[in-house]
Amino acid sequence: MTSIMSDVIAGRIELLEPLARGASGSLWRAVDRRYGAVCAAKVMRQRDGADVLRFVREQSVGTAQDLGRHPHLLPPYTWVAEDDTIVLVMPLVHGGTLAEAVARQGALSPSLTAQLLRQLLDALAAMHASRWVHRDVKPANLLLDSTGEAHPHLLLADFGIALHETDVRLTETGFVHGTPGFMAPEALEGAALSFAQDVWAAAACAVEALAPSRPRERPAPHELAERAAQAMAGSPDPAASGLEHLLRAMLDADPQRRPGAAEAREAIPLLSSPASDWSLTAHGEMFEVPDRIGSGDGRREVPLEGPSALAGLAPGLHERLDALSAAHQGLSPAPQPSAASADTQDTQPSAASASSAAPVVPAVPGPTERFVHLPTRRAPQSHAPATASGGSPARQPVSPAPAAHSHPSPSPAAPPSERRSRSPHPAAAPAP
Are 296 and 311 contacting, i.e. CB atoms less than 8 angstroms apart? Predict the structure, then answer.
């Protein structure tokens, strides 16, 4: 990995210690200086155009229909960039991965496997409802919160090769992307993208939990259903029979015959009994998820649901630009944003790089103020009324926007522009 010139990226993300390294980059325990809280920072390794787009795509999953707040999804909540270094920022999960847990504790009981599969299917159902396909569902991408011997909590992570159904694929012709052993048979043959491929991969993860493979062993796709049946044969676990039937359906060679993620999730009863009754390994021992990272410095951490509950220590870029524009027009600066709006506005790379600036409004217009404000002082050119264009996917129809008309002189009391409509605070009106 290219060495990093500073321990602080873009003035915001302070790298503390490395946690893991992989093909796409390295994972660090870090501090998000905007919130003064510990987070996880994924520093990308390669920097060609396709890899940059994949990192942007991974961050975009978190903002798609609020998927970042789903209890079983862990997309990045923001990203920062400095020179050629790009960092994805997400909450820090302390329990490691399902792959590591199975390697330490061995095969899991059918009841525990079923409950973990239910959580994974809940995450996939939310992604599929938003028309996203993960494409890399595997035990190494399933993180576990450090719940000890309490109810385990699974989170699906790593959205680097996820695709929306409307996206142009970033893969090369003749190549397939995913992990051998967790790719649906039709995906291996280069078939078109489908949600059924994620469902097949989720079932493969469950089989791996029931009957772990030896290192470098990769069972053929058609072997997985029988492998699961053999692992649960004669098991007194009450979930065994139903789980075997469900896995056979999810692993069907015909993707059209597989249940959807939401349908498969509903086939697994949600257990309300104490974890000691069902959260067991195949040998009857308690399944435990200890804290594998630790933190002895007493710092607060970004919650798993994201930083919206935290108060930002400094305003984001858009709030500062609003204040600068308001000061230039002799208006009062916009009030300090809530934590939720600050997090929403801070999803752009340039916003992250400026997050450490002091929230002091200069009295004299500076270069930034001139850059933002001068275009608003030019009289708009007269042109024919423009009709809103563009469209949404056929499965998500939206009402057409009203036609937009230019005006010779916008009123100082005009409402905020559509670009600022997500902010709960009034933006400064453009100068006449």
Answer: no
